[in-house]
């Protein structure tokens, strides 16, 4: 419940003195960095008042991915060192190596040219992630693709959403079954891909972080999230052609080739799905929050694809 006091089990696993370097509270979790005899460590935990069911579900998903799946592929990640989850008590934590000393984030890219190049790095890392999990035998049980549940949620959104872009939401839901028929639903989606989910190593490949929303899906869901949800219309016009090219090239280089038509079909299906999921999130968020701006972005991207 506090970054200053670790649970007994965690202290026993990583004994010795530790110095808290930094601590902060996010919207869905709290975070802290430490200097320890075991090296620099990064703690993510559910702080006081943060133990909502959705938060704990994402925590459990991130722990399951890092524990069971991440070691099976070569996509660079921070390995899981320790985790615990008490759903009834609304508490959870996971411990990772702290990579702050050997990486930097998006904020160091100060010029438009540097940001454009870094966005291509995000696209290439995403392609490697999708190619690594394409048809992987570990994608079974909870990691198995279930389009039926997805389509049920889409129908519910179409029937109940009365907020902005309601006509676009209904149209996306109506078209989704046909759009999904032209995708490759045998990989994992990161679920929240954007420039803040990547750490650039000073030496070595970039690191993909934050797996709380990872789930079985098709490649176009993440590609559309990166282009349609996270970029506005002007940014899409500037960056999307390069991002699509870099993504497709790296996807092919790692064994998953998509034709331009197949890649376009992936993105269209992904945009429809992101429109529905973003509307769902907006319905739970206060007006004026970032997700409402994201809804405008993805509705605009859907209109562009229809034009």
Describe this structure in words.
- The longest helix has 23 residues, at 260-282.
- The strands form three sheets. A five-stranded antiparallel beta sheet has the order 1-2-3-5-4, covered by helices on one side.
- The chain is α+β, with helices and mostly antiparallel strands and 307 residues long.
- The relative contact order is 0.12.
- The chain is globular, with a radius of gyration of 20 Å.
- 48% of the residues lie in helices and 14% in strands.
Please render the helix and strand layout as text:
Elements: H1 8-13, E1 19-25, E2 30-35, E3 41-45, H2 53-69, E4 82-86, E5 91-97, E6 103-104, H3 112-133, H4 147-160, H5 166-180, E7 187-189, E8 198-201, E9 207-208, E10 215-217, H6 219-229, H7 233-253, H8 260-282, H9 290-306
Antiparallel strand pairs: 1-2, 2-3, 3-5, 4-5, 6-8, 7-10, 8-9
Give the tally of β-strands.
10
Rg from C-alpha positions? 20 Å
Give the helix proportion (percent range).
40-55%
- In whole angstroms, the N-to-C terminal distance is 51 Å
Q: Pairing-aware structural class of the strands and helices?
A: alpha+beta
What's the story with the biggest beta sheet? 5 strands, antiparallel
Low-confidence stretches: none
Shape: globular
Summed over residues and divided by their number, the pLDDT gives a mean of: 95
Number of helices: 9
What is the N-to-C order of secondary-structure elements (H for helix, E for strand)? HEEEHEEEHHHEEEEHHHH
Spatial strand order of the main sheet: 1-2-3-5-4
Please report which band the strand proportion falls in: under 5%, 5-15%, 15-25%, 25-35%, 35-45% or over 45%. Answer: 5-15%
């Amino acid at each position: 419940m506090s970054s200053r006091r670790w649970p007994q089990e965690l202290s026993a696993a990583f004994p010795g003195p530790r110095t808290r370097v930094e601590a902060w509270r996010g919207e869905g979790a709290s975070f802290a960095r430490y200097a320890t005899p075991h090296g620099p460590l990064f703690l993510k935990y559910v702080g006081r008042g943060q133990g909502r069911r959705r938060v704990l579900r994402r925590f459990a998903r991130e722990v399951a991915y890092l524990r069971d799946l991440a070691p099976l592929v070569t996509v660079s990640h921070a390995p899981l060192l320790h985790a615990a989850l008490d759903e009834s008590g609304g508490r959870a934590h996971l411990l990772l190596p702290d990579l702050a000393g050997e990486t930097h984030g998006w904020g160091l890219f100060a010029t438009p040219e540097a940001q454009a190049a870094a966005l291509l790095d995000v696209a290439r890392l995403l392609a490697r992630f999708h190619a690594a999990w394409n048809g992987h035998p570990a994608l079974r049980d909870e990691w198995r693709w279930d389009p039926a549940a997805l389509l049920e949620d889409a129908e519910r959104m179409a029937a109940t959403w009365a907020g902005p872009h309601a006509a676009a939401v209904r149209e996306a839901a109506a078209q989704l079954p046909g759009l999904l028929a032209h995708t490759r639903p045998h990989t994992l989606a990161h679920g929240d891909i954007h420039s803040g989910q990547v750490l650039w190593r000073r030496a070595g490949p970039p690191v993909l972080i934050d797996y709380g929303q990872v789930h079985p899906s098709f490649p176009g869901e993440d590609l559309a999230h990166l282009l349609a949800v996270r970029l506005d219309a002007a940014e899409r016009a500037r960056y999307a052609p390069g991002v699509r090219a870099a993504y497709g090239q790296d996807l092919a280089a790692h064994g998953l080739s998509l034709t331009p038509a197949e890649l376009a079909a992936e993105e269209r299906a992904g945009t429809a799905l992101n429109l529905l999921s973003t509307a769902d999130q907006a319905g739970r968020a206060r007006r004026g929050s970032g997700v409402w701006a994201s809804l405008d972005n993805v509705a605009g991207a859907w209109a562009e694809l229809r034009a």
